[in-house]
Amino acid sequence: SHVIRGAADGSVRVKLVARVIWSIHPFEYEWKDEVLTKLMDILNQRVQNDEEMKPNDLAHVAWALAKIHHRDPTMMAKVQERATACLDDFVAWDLANLLWATAKFSYEKPYSEFMSAMEVAFRRDLFAFRPKGMTNCLWGFGKILHFPSPQTVVEIRKYVIKNQLTLDSQGVGNTLWAFAKLSINDKQALGALRGALSVEADKLKPQEISITIWSLATLSETLDAQTKRSLETHLLRIADSLGPQSITNILWAYGSLAMHMDSDLSARILENLRHNHHNLTTQGVSNIIWAGARLSWNTDTDATDMLRTLVGSKPPSSFSALELTNILWGIAKLRLNIDPQLQNYLDIDLATRLGEFNPQSLVTSLWATVKIAARSSDYLIDCIQDEMLEREKGFFTAQSASNTLWALATQGYTPSKDLMEKIEDDIDECLLDFKPQEISNTFWAYAKLLLSPRESVMEGLQEQAEKKASQMTSQAISNILWSFAKLNYIVVAPRFFEALEERGVEIVDKFVPQEIANTIWAMGQMRTVPSQRFLGLIYRQSIAKVDAWKPKEITGLMWGLLKLSLKPDDRFSTILQQRACEIAPYFSATGARMLAWALKYLGVEITAESAAAFPIMENDDEFQLEIIGGSEESVPD
């Protein structure tokens, strides 16, 4: 009664009214509801009319409403209006409480007048915040998705580096979560947070540890061995108390980072899932199957059994288009044998819902369906292609066109004539958007399917490859040249080759044996002689990677040199022969003959070890006529 009278006549400050409301709320007194109703009415009147309210009062009102989960947009709007007018007078802790409460109910949209003013105030007072206040503010920005300006990010970095040792486990987890939600990929700040995490790892609660690992994965931040060990040791202790969402977050993170999980921890998490998988959401089921595929769980019988259980744990129709796509991708990637009737249900659901799928989901579904074609009818594959044909002009972007052709080519499934025409129509319209990897994948897919691109596509992609050669990887260069050779493109603009070769010289140390073999084999097929500089560097890189050479790669390389009539230097020849001798038992009969023919035809001195390892090298008549026309054996993958 005293509080109510004082609240009504203004003798009790608003902040104390707010704290009394918060204090009473958890209890079950008979008079609670009546008193709370009266106090709420008075609080609302004071917020609307009391001109004596201070910043601390406004922060307390917002904080109390959020703490008791009482949503009142009208009262909060007035609080924010009055707060905006006096933010210069707010102290750090009150700013943190106000922002936290605002985010708790998502009262504001990003970049509103209030949120913009809050960011300015946050940046101004940042170093006056205690760590908990700072993390609460970042959490608020993350919840509302108000992305701080670069200037604010710089100040956040300074704060985190300075205060990393004072962050507790919850602070580390919440800050990493906010960084992930706000795409703050600042390496210095993240380095400081990883340092704090290594100290606090064993204090994280189950939900905190899952959010922390999820955040690191979202930011593509790998864990160092020591921190990973600390986290996994702690996870082992609390594995039984992890809830379904925590398990989902953890597995998704491991899958995203392609990070090997400790076998004991994996077993404990699987055991937890056996008992609690029925509590997973559809997104949880989808994400765990996706993660299992990323982590190659098809080698673990217990894991594959659990994944099969998850596939059939919910009706296919309950999954969103994206979730269904991830499940199909996981089934295909893991080569997961599931019940034929369940597979049929999945196929039917997919066929009837294709209209819901975005371009990327359609492409992924097509790849997965082709991959498991032995268990799916051609009818479903045709349905997906028909859906693609039904989409409007411009459906295929550079990325989706490249991915569609790549998906089909990886499984050796030739698209229909109509689909190819649609894809190429769209490629013609978006040639400028093709990135180097997409150019490489597209050429590779054409070659793998033995389909010649229409002239405009061929010329357009070649022009883009020349312009973007400086961004090419060694794999992209190798794949493009291999594709041209495979499609028998002999006459190609010299400047195109020069651009790719110039890039190859810059990144020659990135070439692996298969890429070297593909490149030289392709040049040989097209009779395009590399420069002495490029060839010399390729020899040097081949020697540096000599222990990784395989029989087919050695054969392809030598066949390319043979086609170009280029005798390799003596040091390279000797070292390559040594490697061939080490792996001689793995050469096919045809491969051994081709190696022998190339060495002899080029006038390379055959070592005694090679003659002993490959007896065929001593007998010209036995293999010469068989090899001179070439063979598919010489074509690297």
Overview of this protein structure:
It is built from 34 helices and no strands. It is mainly α and 637 residues long. Helix 10 packs parallel to helix 12, helix 24 runs antiparallel to helix 25 and helix 30 packs parallel to helix 32. About 2% of the residues have low confidence. Helices cover 68% and strands 0% of the residues.
Concise overview:
With 637 residues, the protein is mainly α. It has helices at residues 2-9, 14-24, 32-49, 55-67, 73-85, 92-104, 113-125, 131-144, 150-163, 169-181, 187-200, 206-218, 225-238, 244-257, 263-276, 282-294, 301-311, 321-334, 340-352, 359-371, 378-390, 398-410, 417-429, 436-448, 455-467, 474-486, 494-506, 513-525, 532-544, 551-564, 570-582, 589-601, 608-613, 620-627.
Rg, Cα atoms, Å: 32 Å
Residue share in helix:
55-70%
Total number of strands: 0
Strand content: under 5%
Query: What characterizes the major β-sheet?
Result: none
Number of helices: 34
Distance between the termini: 85 Å
Estimate the mean pLDDT confidence: 89
Structural class: mainly alpha
Key traits:
637 residues, mainly alpha, 68% helix
Topology:
Layout: H1 2-9, H2 14-24, H3 32-49, H4 55-67, H5 73-85, H6 92-104, H7 113-125, H8 131-144, H9 150-163, H10 169-181, H11 187-200, H12 206-218, H13 225-238, H14 244-257, H15 263-276, H16 282-294, H17 301-311, H18 321-334, H19 340-352, H20 359-371, H21 378-390, H22 398-410, H23 417-429, H24 436-448, H25 455-467, H26 474-486, H27 494-506, H28 513-525, H29 532-544, H30 551-564, H31 570-582, H32 589-601, H33 608-613, H34 620-627
